[in-house]
Amino acid sequence: MKGQITASLGFFAKLALSQSVIYSGSGYGTYYYDIQHPQSCGQDLSVANTGNVECSQFIALNLNQINSNNLVAMNHSLIASNLAQYCGRQVVVSVNGQPSSTPFFIGDGCERCGTGSSTGPWNPNGAPGLDFSFSALSALNSNACNNGHIDISWQVLDTTLYNFDTNAPGQPEGPVSGGGNPGNGGGSTCTWAGHCQGASCSSDNDCSDSLVCNSGVCSADSGSSGSTPPATCSWEGHCQGASCSSDDDCSDSLVCNSGKCSP
Ligand SMILES: *[C@@H]1O[C@H](CO)[C@@H](O)[C@H](O)[C@H]1NC(C)=O
């Protein structure tokens, strides 16, 4: 179990222990598609949704087929140089230094993100950054629609959230089972991306929120203690299920049956 206070303090220390950052930077977030709301910010993004993603090379998958608003596009030149390295990897996106808990993953290349100066400034034809779904971008910063771009920083981790035929050849293409469903818009997950139910762990501290580490996998606490509330009766400690040696040890009308107070 992990307290919420340690969550922010321990975040990067824990990343350093269990996950490596394979690419990071700062720049600008923009949007180019939206599966759930193709009509957004006065634009029709439905054609963009039919575009094939760069990470699926052999079986052409388009954004609609991947069906997740958490797919992110990165520097096209860089991803094209090593699809296996970047595709499907988790991206922690921060706004004003605050990491988002949305489990973003790399799935596509972004032309604008690959040209221009790697230190900015903003230039619609070339500036560093990532390209998002509109819903995800506006959840990160409500100015997304008005400004068209927002300031972000990012860390791509070596954690795989999505299997493409480029990064996981031979595997079925789709969300990594047990690795946290990439989801649509990040509503159904936990507060510590990559540490949700099904993620691998070595102790409870590796698991988000109230999840516990059970046989190396973050799991909901389903231990026997606490699953049935203790029975109440007029003589505390001598209620149903309490151990006894005679009926006199049991409250009210309970009787001692095989060493346990029973109805
Ligand atoms: C994109 O990646 C290429 C290859 O690593 C690099 O040369 C270029 O500077 C990057 N572009 C930006 C805008 O960061």
Automatic annotation (TrEMBL):
Residues 1-18 form the signal peptide. Keywords: Signal. InterPro entries: RlpA-like_sf. It comes from the Eukaryota. This is Uncharacterized protein.
